[in-house]
């Protein structure tokens, strides 16, 4: 979970720098809400992976698949809610949301694959 928080801090820094350097047209005003949403998803993933790794990891795959589906459904609901409510500058909102979705997805896959490699080496 610490790595997710550090990753979020890095993304927060990038957003502040982009705003400071004059790239505010690429940053939606709701970027903080989007980051909080993805931190909450990361926390949920962390908890589900911990639960899945109990009992020698037998439930890991179903828990991870459940999280993947939940992340997709919650992300569509989150973006749909704001678009339905008439968020200003929809194009920037959707672009920022998709970029954050991809960053967090790649980060979580990288983190899981590095943990799985380490666990595999320990078992062999």
Into which percent range does the helicity of residues fall? over 70%
Helices and strands: which structural class?
Answer: mainly alpha
Task: Give the helices and strands as they follow along the chain.
Answer: HHHH
Number of strands: 0
Largest sheet: none
Question: What is the end-to-end distance?
Answer: 26 Å
Shape category: globular
Which whole number gives the mean pLDDT? 83
Total number of domains: 1
Give a brief description.
With 124 residues, this protein is mainly alpha-helical. It has helices at 2-20, 31-53, 60-84, 90-123. The two termini are 26 Å apart.
Please, could you describe this protein's structure?
With 124 residues, the chain is mainly α. It has one domain. The chain has 4 helices and no strands. The mean pLDDT is 83.
Per-chain topology:
Layout: H1 2-20, H2 31-53, H3 60-84, H4 90-123
Helix pairs in contact: 1-2, 2-3, 2-4
């Amino acid at each position: 979970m610490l790595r997710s928080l550090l990753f979020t801090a890095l993304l927060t820094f990038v957003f502040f720098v982009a705003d400071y350097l004059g790239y505010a047209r690429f940053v939606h005003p709701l970027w903080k809400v989007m980051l909080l949403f993805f931190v909450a998803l990361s926390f949920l993933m962390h908890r589900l992976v911990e639960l899945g790794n109990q009992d020698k990891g037998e439930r890991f795959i179903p828990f991870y698949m459940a999280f993947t589906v939940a992340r997709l459904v919650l992300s569509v609901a989150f973006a749909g809610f704001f678009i339905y409510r008439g968020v200003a500058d929809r194009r920037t909102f959707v672009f920022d949301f998709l970029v954050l979705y991809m960053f967090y997805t790649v980060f979580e896959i990288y983190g899981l694959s590095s943990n799985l490699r380490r666990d595999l080496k320990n078992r062999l």
